[in-house]
């Protein structure tokens, strides 16, 4: 599904943030990404989301070399990927319900085919009472749960999540992890970047450990 071969990444003329990165993500797999702050976890996720191109090396996604894809092809490819950013990236002019259902609207599905699914998912992430409010009145944790619901509603082929439980209490964090596990059982590959070792220890999944710009695979 995702393959990195000797990938390096630098910003401008600075030193490489990532170097000699090689790994692959299989379909229906579950991985954690861990490492200290500034190790490059978010940069690695951005490369996997195809929103950045590597400075060197090869990144293939769904069997295609991303360096050969045009803008429209990249946009089509990204529709197969759900992503939870640390800064949420909610659309302020849309309600919570409209933000969550946006991936399905973009695909052209009529509302009556997904409305109940969206409502049930919002209840699962404890947002059932916030359907018709706008993001500017939400707390950080509520915005995070909205972003997670938006990322998973379309059952993407690949889900990328950057610190998805950073603003919620441990009980809700465990609940969200169960949501990711169930999505994985339905066929979605999951990649979660986190500092939370307690969260990672709840689920026996391989870890991509980032250290000094390089990635090491650790299997429990």
List the defining traits of the structure above.
single chain; 220 residues; alpha/beta; 4-stranded antiparallel beta sheet; 7 helices; 10 strands; globular
Architecture blueprint of SSEs:
Layout: E1 2-10, E2 16-25, E3 30-34, H1 41-48, E4 56-61, E5 64-65, H2 71-78, E6 81-84, H3 96-106, H4 115-124, H5 140-152, E7 158-162, H6 170-185, E8 189-193, H7 197-201, E9 207-211, E10 214-218
Parallel strand pairs: 3-8, 3-9, 6-7, 7-8
Antiparallel strand pairs: 1-2, 1-4, 4-5, 9-10
Can you characterise this structure?
It is a single chain. With 220 residues, this protein is an alpha/beta fold. 32% of the residues lie in helices and 25% in strands. The protein has a 6-stranded mixed beta sheet with strand order 6-7-8-3-9-10, with helices on both faces. A 4-stranded antiparallel beta sheet has the order 2-1-4-5, with helices on one face. The model has no long low-confidence stretch (mean pLDDT 90).
Report the strand count: 10
Shape: globular
Q: How much of the polypeptide forms β-strand, as a percent range?
A: 25-35%
Helix fraction bin = 25-40%
Largest sheet, described in full?
A: 6 strands, mixed
Determine the oligomeric state from the structure. single chain
The structural class is alpha/beta
| End-to-end separation | 22 Å
Number of helices: 7
Let me know the average pLDDT: 90
Helix/strand order, N-terminal first:
EEEHEEHEHHHEHEHEE
Instruction: Walk across the major sheet and give the strand order.
Output: 6-7-8-3-9-10
**What ranges have pLDDT less than 50 throughout 5 or more consecutive residues?**
none
- Rg over C-alpha atoms, rounded to the nearest angstrom: 17 Å
């Amino acid at each position: 599904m995702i393959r990195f071969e000797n990938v390096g990444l630098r910003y401008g003329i600075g030193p490489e943030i990532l170097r000699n990165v090689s790994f692959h993500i299989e379909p229906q797999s579950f991985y954690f990404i861990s490492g200290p702050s500034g190790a490059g976890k978010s940069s690695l996720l951005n490369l996997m989301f195809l929103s950045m191109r590597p400075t060197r090396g090869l990144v293939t996604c769904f069997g295609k070399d991303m360096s050969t894809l045009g803008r429209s092809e990249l946009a089509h490819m990204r529709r197969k990927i759900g992503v939870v950013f640390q800064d949420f990236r909610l659309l302020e002019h849309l309600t919570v319900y409209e933000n969550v259902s946006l991936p399905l609207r973009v695909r052209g599905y009529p509302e009556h085919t997904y409305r109940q699914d969206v409502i049930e998912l919002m209840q699962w992430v404890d947002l059932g009472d916030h359907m018709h409010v706008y993001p500017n009145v939400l707390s950080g944790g509520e915005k995070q749960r909205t972003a997670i619901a938006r990322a998973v509603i379309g059952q993407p082929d690949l889900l990328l999540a950057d610190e998805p439980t950073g603003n919620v209490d441990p009980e809700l964090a465990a609940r969200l992890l169960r949501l990711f596990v169930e999505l994985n059982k339905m066929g979605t590959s999951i990649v979660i970047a986190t500092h939370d070792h307690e969260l990672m220890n709840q689920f026996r999944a391989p870890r991509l450990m980032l250290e000094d710009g390089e990635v090491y695979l650790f299997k429990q």
